[in-house]
Design brief:
Two copies of one chain form a homodimer. With 199 residues, chain A is an all-alpha fold. Chain A is 69% helix and 0% strand. The C terminus of chain A is likely disordered. At the A-B interface, helix 6, helix 7, helix 8 and helix 10 of A face helix 6, helix 7, helix 8 and helix 10 of B. Chain B binds a DNA duplex (18 and 18 nucleotides) through helix 3.
Chain lengths: 199, 199
Amino acid sequence: MARPPLARERVLDAFEAILIDEGGRAATLDAVARRAGVSKGGLLYHFASKDDLAAGLVDRLDTLTDADLERMADSPEGPVTYYIRTSVMEDDALDRAIVATTRLAQGGSAIATAGLDRSRRRWAAAIRPHVRDDAALDLVMLLSDGLYFNNSLAFEPGAAAEDAADLVPTGAGLARLIDLVLRTTTRAPEDPEPASDEV
Amino acid sequence: MARPPLARERVLDAFEAILIDEGGRAATLDAVARRAGVSKGGLLYHFASKDDLAAGLVDRLDTLTDADLERMADSPEGPVTYYIRTSVMEDDALDRAIVATTRLAQGGSAIATAGLDRSRRRWAAAIRPHVRDDAALDLVMLLSDGLYFNNSLAFEPGAAAEDAADLVPTGAGLARLIDLVLRTTTRAPEDPEPASDEV
DNA sequence: GTCTATATAGCGATAGAC
DNA sequence: GTCTATCGCTATATAGAC
């Protein structure tokens, strides 16, 4: 680890913050440097190009994913509950890295797309042993993706924070949703033979 | 409707295509005009500004949402199955409009964010009567969002089309997922829920 | 390691011919 | 209704002083 230069982290924080608060188009080198309290030249000393800045954000996502996988494995509530519960935007370091990287990916950054894909596969692999079958795994993963998708839209400049409240379940609503998912994905099915014929 | 000028539609198609294929940053007026086979001046006759171009895309999304709500209401498989099934990217007009608008929203376009939010609320209102409770509605909506999120990432330049295949269920896997969701959301619960009093 | 100044190119938008 | 030409601005990136 050998803690990286502080200015470098501050630049990365600023990049992340602008991506989240104002969207991908606003995240210019000028804007990032200003927010980080350095000059553009100072920024470019730490990150040689904008692509390098994106790579730095993806590195941060990888590191935070490592830590989250450990926390998830140790979680007393179980990996499924932990994963869904922590998929609502709580503005912690991991949430911010995910939303910021998503913004980059949607702008067209290949490295951001690959980084998101990599983290997602690691979470899926860790969760798989704790759910009934592949359909159940799909359900859990997609639900989490949906939560991030909505939270990320809710944080856009066009959306009032109050309006977002009823888009995504929080508190008791989230608890009921998790309960629903747990019943659906972790237990053996009550009716062992679905025998559905429609597609 | 009084069919709009063809060139206008071609420009909108090109805008959509570039957003989907190359991401938000690549969707410049020059690139859109080139792909549509018109000059930049020609483009700007139909859409006075880039914001106006975004507004045109959102209008298209609204219109396609109208049509989809009708199809969903008439669907013999039922609204829930219809909604989930059609949430995988099939490259039809509605899918393309949604993914393209999502790219714009993540770039920071307030009008795109508002448009997505509006369509999502209309779908939610149409589905609500067909599921058990609000938690079930959340599940269905978030699952659909998750499918779009993944499909939109899979279409990014950084992701090979083959790799995307195992990210999102298709065919039989999708059928099993829908079956799982239907059992979870549409039937009366085996254990009758204690009437909860919040929300 | 951080700054200012500057080069270069690309972007959105306008003007005006046809 | 579509074109070419061009303006003014902003973006990324470089050079070189401190």
